[in-house]
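Need tokens for this chain, all 122 residues.
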Amino acid sequence: SGILPSQVYANIFGDILGIRQVNKELLVAMEVSTDKIGKVFMDLAPYLKFYSTYANDFKQATQLVEEQMERNKPFKALLAKQESRPEVQKKLNALLITPVQRIPRYKLLLDDIIKNTPRFHP
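Here are the structure tokens for all 122 residues:
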């Protein structure tokens, strides 16, 4: 609604919608294909590049949030209002790091699956 210039918005949130879509597809695929989780990840691997781009831009994004908090009173007011809602339990910068933390969690999940899967399982 014009609180952030479109380029600043794009630099802060990056391709978060692409990441969200990959996660939706991953969830559905894992629910349907519970015995072939490795294949699910292999099929979605090309789309995980969204994460690397997002992670590479993360530091700049958090700096932009801080800059906008200092310079942009409507943005600061909106953030304060949203972050004070009971269902919102984290600040924006704490939420922005979530996708960055997801890939190591996927690796831990896959390591655990490999460890607990018989060697000759398809």
